[in-house]
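Workshop exercise sheet. Pairs work together: one partner reads the sequence aloud, the other fills in the structure field after running the prediction. Swap roles for the next sheet.
Pair: D.N. / O.F.
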Amino acid sequence: MTFVCYRFGIFAFSIVAALADIPTRTTSNVPYDDSNFVSKSIDTPPWAQPKQKASSLKCRCYPGDNCWPSASVWDAFNETIGGRLIATTPLAAPCHDSTFGLYDAIECANLKAAWLTPDLHVKSPSSIMAPYFANNSCNPFLPEASPCTVGAYVSYSVNVSQPMDIARTLWFATYFNIRVVVKNTGHDYNGKSTGAGAISLWTHNLKKIKMIDYKSVNYTGKAIKVGAGVQVEEAYAAASAQGLTVVGGECPTVGYAGGYTQGGGHSALSSKHGLAADQVLEWEVVDGRGRLLQANPSVNPDLYWGALRGRRRELWRCHLYDK
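Structure field:
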């Protein structure tokens, strides 16, 4: 849920969590498998510039810089991800006269009434719940004549639907040296789900949930497999329908498989069942090189124990599941 480290970034495509306690861990030294390197299947992209090499600059390319991709390049990139690129229009734009449109009193009143509720921002690819990090870029409560700009919001978002969307976005961002952030619901009050001049991996619509009978050396029993966009309330409902319990937090709109679980996952049930991170049996992840990987105590245990379950958080970044 923060800036992507292109070398070590981990983007989890699914999480499988136990619906019971997890026994003692076991590990094995299983190396990464390059056979499923997603980017191997991508031909030279239509947005590549014949006379331009991939950027080696340390500072990120920013809108207005000479290195910033042209509109036609963004359009070409959009074609490679199935038209899922979204240019940011600030959520509060109807409250101001700006390049995004004219003031709309009715729409602005509706926005103001809902502004402090999570659902409004959860459904937006760019809006966040931390006003400090929005930096008044487009504040609905400021006067109509106040500026409304993209400002501290991301410049573009990718509505992630499959692992290749991540792989292609990382390739594009690396090539042009563009900042990358990840947004699921926007609950991150440290501002990590936004960033000026960034392209965002928006995982909110990865909503698939599957109840499975899981079997491994460490655990055999019921488990829930959820996509990165699944929220706590949705995981609760799916488990409850089967007469089962999920270890989750109090806030129903928080993303279950994102920063909540990877950061530990405190719960009212923790005194009995442990943290949410303790329940994780397996991850499906896309790493910063575009590889679709499995991570459990036997396969890629360094990711399972180190990068994805509350330790060494500088190594990870996002997650998904859509099968």
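Discussion prompt: The CA atoms of residues 96 and 143 lie 8 Å apart. What would you look at next?
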